[in-house]
Amino acid sequence: QRALDLDPDQPEARFNLANLLDQLGETELALAELLAVCSRHPAFADAHYNLGLLLYRLGGLAQARHHLGQYLALDPASEWSTRARGLLAAVA
Question: Which of 1, 9, 11, 84 is exposed most, by the fewest CB atoms within 10 A?
């Protein structure tokens, strides 16, 4: 939160806050933070992955597909890309 107080548009801090909120069960707040990161910083691949995962858990399958697809377009060769492809296959 302190990093965001200094720079409200700092994507890594907002991404980390979203992950913490999700771990604490604050799903709606986590969703809002990840949506903010993805809209303001569309090249932040990991935010798309986590948002896709969260949306998948919430049943927003079309939106999950979109963000997982964005992740794969940005980072197709990472170790997480295999997991993203598996999730995409599950929601297809």
Answer: 1
